[in-house]
Design brief:
6 domains; 4-stranded antiparallel β-sheet; elongated; 6-stranded mixed β-sheet; alpha/beta; Nucleotidyltransferase, domain 5
Length: 604
């Protein structure tokens, strides 16, 4: 044997011992690393033999022979797995329980929140169900949740775990302290679990314990079906052929730990469970009463005078409120029912326009609860105003860019919704494309109002247009009146429309003749310098009138008028207009001077 090569290998073995403790590390991994670092290396079989000889030289231990159906070894893996809280994003460590039947090496694995008595008892019960039977003894590794006082000769088993053994008809026999050979098998199984299960879970994210356990059980089935190198057959086959028949029959019901507490129902209608620091709802009529709480690892039952009031699934999220809606008082249920659909449905009882407006108001909010409060304010106006007025106010406000409670309140205070809206058509009477007229007709259809025309000849000077319009309005059941001919019949309309059309044609002829005559005299046409002082005054009056009639200014005027009555300054009014989403007719923010201009324009 090459002495130097052998000594250099021996120097590595101590580090290899620590390396093998890492999850998933095997002798094959160590040999691959050794081969890469040394030119003159041993073969894999020689490496393993030398390593085994070195281990034997350090410590001597006897080999345990196991009898089928005799023992179940249990322990928790040293390495934890994780789940992610879906709501908070918090990563939580969870424990991993491992149980193994030593005669067949048949293994069970599951994750649990912790290593408490409740979790251990549940995991052992699930393990026995997985095996389909009970061995003569369960061998824990002096776990605090199983053993009250460890001893090499007579350990003290805690009452809960001892009662569980009696329930399943087996004994509890912890491993001896300072005797690692007693637990070598289960620790070996844990190392294999790291390789066969942990590694495959490392790239997965789980949001609940049940999801994690479902994936563990899929990998566990594959693990138990692998053929072992020592025997050439799988753990499952060994279990079926040599161990399953030696297990005792399971009892009909699993063993569950029941904890008992007394609690007072708080003013909110919940009891507080201190173990997990969370809350469970109780019917509100028991507020202030003292109740009995019975809870297991999965459920929480609440009793009053031996009558079960309710049952909840147990929560392990600290500070969580577990609620059954029927337990809450009507005021609490009303608050929890808030949603866009809830308020739109409430508004529909007033009218379609109110429902549309409230839906639009809520949609404009980045934080829905702000919209819910404003919607609640609009609905509360029913106490002060008839539903028809609220419906008309919402219809008027739908033309505004921003929706708010204050807008509806201001309209109702100033009775602005009772003032018929005015639509000013700027198109020529000879032009049949009339956008403002179409808006006015649509509003009449919505409200059942009468369409009022200031002057028939300004509506149109086309007989066909007027009669087509009248036919359209008759079909839509919209009444039509010309204020300069309030009692006009169909025949009168025909005569007046014909006269208007004739006048339009005569005006056109006179205008063309006048322009030609002016041109013949050498007069320049279309120059601003040709305007007289009278013409300029008319132009200025026209600009002021258009400013008053601009839709955005009319909307803002009602708001300005209301706030001035409350004594607010022009600067404060400008700030509130901007906050409510109002803009000037040019789309800019309001300034104190622009508010003053509008106020003077409308008050003059």
């Amino acid at each position: 044997m090459d002495r130097d090569r052998y000594v250099s290998l021996l120097d590595l073995f101590l580090d290899y011992i620590n390396e093998l403790k890492k999850p998933g590390c095997t002798r094959q991994h160590l040999w691959n690393r050794y081969k890469q670092e040394h030119i003159d290396y041993y073969s894999y079989s020689q490496f393993c033999q030398l390593f085994s000889d070195w281990l034997d030289s350090k410590k001597v231990s006897g080999k345990l022979h196991h009898i089928a159906g005799d023992k179940l070894y249990i322990d928790y893996a040293g390495k934890k797995l994780q789940i992610v809280d879906k709501e908070s994003g918090e990563i939580k460590d969870v424990e991993v329980f491992v149980g193994i039947l030593p005669a067949s090496n048949y293994t069970y694995v599951e994750a649990s929140y912790d290593q408490t008595r409740e979790s251990l008892v549940k995991s052992v019960g699930n393990c026995l169900v997985y095996f389909g039977g009970v061995p003569l003894a369960i061998v824990p590794d002096n776990l605090k949740s199983a053993v009250t006082k460890a001893s090499k000769y007579e350990p003290v088993i805690n009452k809960t775990f001892r009662d569980m053994g009696q329930h399943y008809g087996c004994v509890i026999n912890p491993t001896r302290t300072y005797s690692p050979q007693d637990k070598a098998l289960v620790e070996s199984a844990v190392n294999l679990v790291y390789q066969r299960i942990y590694y495959h879970l490392s790239n997965m994210t789980f949001f609940s314990l049940s999801d994690l356990n479902n994936q563990i059980h899929i990998l566990l089935e594959k693990y138990n079906r692998y053929k072992m190198q020592t025997t050439g057959i799988s753990r499952l086959k060994q279990f079926i052929e040599m161990e399953k028949e030696h297990l005792s029959v399971l009892p009909n019901e699993p063993y569950l730990i029941k904890n008992y507490n007394r609690a007072k129902v708080q003013k909110m209608g919940y009891i507080y469970l201190s173990e997990q620091k969370n809350y469970y709802s109780v019917p509100y009529r028991y507020i202030g009463k003292h109740v009995e709480v019975q809870h297991t690892i999965d459920t929480v039952e609440i009793f009053y005078s031996k009558e079960r009031l309710t049952t909840h699934a147990k929560s392990y999220r600290r500070g969580n409120y577990t609620t059954i809606e029927e337990h809450l008082a009507s005021t609490h249920r009303y608050y929890l029912s808030w949603s866009r659909e809830f308020f739109v449905k409430q508004a529909s009882a007033i009218g379609e326009n109110t429902a549309t407006y409230i839906g639009k108001l809520i949609d404009q909010q980045t934080y829905p609860e702000i919209g819910y409060k404003r919607a609640q304010g609009i609905l509360s106006l029913k106490k002060s105003y008839p539903g028809k007025r609220i419906e008309k106010a919402c219809l008027k406000a739908l033309d505004y860019h921003i929706c708010s409670f204050k807008t509806i309140e201001t309209i109702l205070k100033n009775k602005a919704e009772l003032v018929p809206p005015t639509f000013t058509e700027v198109e020529s009477g000879k032009n049949n494309h009339r956008p403002e007229l179409n808006k006015a007709i649509d509003r009449c259809k919505q409200t059942g109002s009468t369409l009022l025309i200031a002057k028939l000849d300004r509506l149109s000077r086309d007989v066909a247009f007027i009669f087509n319009l009248k036919a359209e309005l008759d079909a839509a059941k919209v009444d039509f009146r010309a204020l300069d001919l309030p009692e006009a019949s169909t025949m009168t309309l025909a005569i007046m429309a014909g006269m208007a059309q004739q006048e339009r044609e005569l005006i056109s002829q006179r205008t063309k003749a006048g322009l030609q005559a002016a041109k013949a005299r050498g007069q320049k046409l279309g120059s601003p310098q040709n305007l007289t002082d009278e013409a300029r005054a008319k132009a200025h009056a026209s600009i002021s009138r258009k400013a008053r009639e601009a839709q955005s200014v009319r909307h803002a005027w009602h708001f300005i008028q209301s706030l001035r009555k409350e004594g607010l300054s022009y600067a404060r009014i400008a700030a509130q207009l901007n906050d409510e989403g109002y803009r000037t007719r040019t789309g800019k923010l309001f300034q104190p001077q622009s508010v003053l201009n509008i106020y003077n324009r409308f008050m003059s």
